[in-house]
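Appendix B, record 7
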Amino acid sequence: MKNTFQVSDQKTRCPWCLGFEEYIAYHDTEWGVPVWDDRVHFEFLILESAQAGLSWATILKKREGYRKAFADFDYEVVAEFPESYVQELLQDPSIIRNVLKIRAAINNAKRFMEVQKEFGSFSNYIWGFVGGKPIQNRLSSMSEAQATTKESDLLAKDLKKRGFKFLGSTTVYAHMQATGLFNDHLESCFRFSEV
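Structure tokens (predicted):
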């Protein structure tokens, strides 16, 4: 099924982002850009785990709601969310109101800080799974894209061992793509050579 959304700049993009302006802007400015900032990694961990079973477009449309509800992705604040706030979040239509995902975000904030303490930063930890630099996949079509990799399998297994929730290999690989540990822009996409 072809997407009917038209982009006037005539740039060639990965086809998954075509559909609405925020999706294109996300693709053009964020997706695949290497992230070294722990707060950004935490943001994507929350958003990716919230996405489990849903589309990324759904989460992207609720991103501002998540930003407000989750203290601008301040993991130190999120780690201390009381049960009363969990109950408030379950009434908040600006996020995915799934109690397991909300509690997972709080749990993951605590685990995130444990990783920081052990490795100096979460960034140091996660980049270690790809040898400290982005893996450049050279995809000519979306049919070549994978849902998981050996690196995402290893990372997901290690995160689970450390007590993280809602971060299986597929979700972890989505995180690794979003935060630039893998460059999975199609080679024909104008962003492939820019990230």
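Remarks on this record: Residues 111 and 117 are 10 Å apart (CA to CA). Residues 99-119 form the longest helix (21 residues).
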